Amino acid sequence: MSLLQVKNLGINFGGLKAVDDFSVNIEKGTLYGLIGPNGAGKTTVFNLLTGVYKPSTGTFRLDGELLNGKKPMEINRMGIARTFQNIRLFSNMSVIDNVKVGLHNHQTYSVFDGVFRTPKYYREEKSMNDEAVELLKVFDLENEKNNLAFNLPYGKQRKLEIARALATKPKLLLLDEPAAGMNPNETEELMSTIRFVRDNFDMTILLIEHDMRLVGGICEEVTVLNFGTELAKGKTSEVLNDPRVITAYLGE
Amino acid sequence: MEKFKSFLIRKKKPVIFSVLGIAVFIICNALISSGTLGRQGAGLLVPICINIMLAVSLNLIVGFLGELSLGHAGFMSVGAYAGCLFTIHFDLPVYIEFPLALIIGGLVAAIFGVIIGLPALRLNGDYLAIVTLAFGEIIRSIINSLEFTGGAGGLKGINKFSNFSVAYIAAMLTIIVIVNLVHSRHGRAITAIRDNIISAEAMGINVVFYKLISFVMAAFFAGAAGVLYGHHLAILKPGTFDFNKSIEILVIVVLGGMGNITGSIIAAIIITILPEVLRDLSDYRMLIYSIALIVMMLSSSSPKLAELRSKIKGRLRPSTGKEVA
Questions:
Q1: Per-domain residue ranges of chain A
Q2: For the segment A194-225, what is each residue's pLDDT rounded down to a tens digit?
Q3: Is 3.40.50.300 the CATH classification of the domain at A1-79+170-252?
Q4: Which of A164, A252, B50, B79 could bond B105 through an S-S bridge, CB–CB 3.0 to 4.6 Å?
Q5: How far is B50 from chain A (nearest CA, A)?
Q6: Coil, helix or strand for A164?
Q7: R_g (Cα) of chain A, nearest Å
């Protein structure tokens, strides 16, 4: 059974069908790409999958569990985490605290434990801290851990967003244009990071990207969206050479 | 001895805090009993503690949750009336009755915290500010028109239970609870909501729960502060809990720095003492407040002054300074 099963997902804004009849099955451990020209509805798909929008039609399941209609908070707890196209870090919190917010739901101490600093508080805070540092090491951010997030350079902010999403221990990771605004070297580094995350965290990743080098380099399968509908789907190399896809991007 | 030493190193901050807290308490008590402070000075200590409680609790909403609340005096008045009515109508030994009154005042205010916290889930920014403002005014006019609260004439016959020791302990408890909350996973969730509510939700933070708990906690301590206030003055008048009172608390929070508890404490002390020191200039009090606010706003947003501050900080703490560079 596929990890993510999306069936005929669609949403209307007024009369506009932003996404229509979107279906996809993603196997566990796949790196899946979602591409398409600007305004094709890629981020809308992400917003549907994370509960920001409620779908007008269709369903989606993670590990067989029906998720549509659930709130963003619940969907995250069920195992879908995301990053944002326009970075949304907790900018006035330290780098490590950003990751700790991601770890929030994996600690159990109550408000009472926190306020009166019971032994449980100290125990869980310590393991939380260790876990956060471990995660920051993966992304080469451990030297920045006490800096405020907004002081980080752009590339590191993107990495921190991925680290924070991973901290919620998802089954499926959604990356919204992770390489936006990066230079070729940074993109190269990001590609190896994404591969590393997939292999070492045993992660399934769905990503939106405009950088075809990145998509061609790491995605095993892609779906191309155009005007809210699926234009092509399949193995990356085949889809990227499909004349219809080239037309959609470059015109006749 | 070795064990004790390692304990000191491990828990440096709490140890320093408690030593400092006890030292301040002893010094203040010595100053009162030796009469150095004079009657006027000693009379200011309880209001200082009350203002610290109000400012620190409001800071949880304004500074950490990031919502503007203009109804803090409303919470204070609800708690004050509940606590004072309790001590008037019940006759228990003081050492049971007064702490119980503080808790009752806090709890009743906390219930109102839930009531006002519920719209806060749907509103934010300016709209929430208006709702909280209206809440404060509604509470005031209801108290004004009720029989058992004494109406506009005020609630009289309250025992003067408040003294420096009780107020000090209450203020300390407020600070400890809020500081500990802020430094726990729950506090981080609250701060995350302030910084970016959309990604906080996407990280699985229960926004509803944390907004409510912030309002409930802030209201609890404001209510307890109100009980202290009532038993300090021995009379409660609805007029004292007007919009100006809410603004005064907000001014303390803004002056001390939003999200800065130490700042709130220092600002609360200054704002309480200032009107007494400037008694001759009492006509200009509001003018001085507003000038102080404008100066604070300018100094915290001016890049040159920010640079100067970070330089001073770097010099005071060279190790952290290097890390940043």
A1: 1-79+170-252, 91-167
A2: 999 999 999 999 999 988 889 989 999 999 99
A3: yes
A4: B79
A5: 21
A6: helix
A7: 19
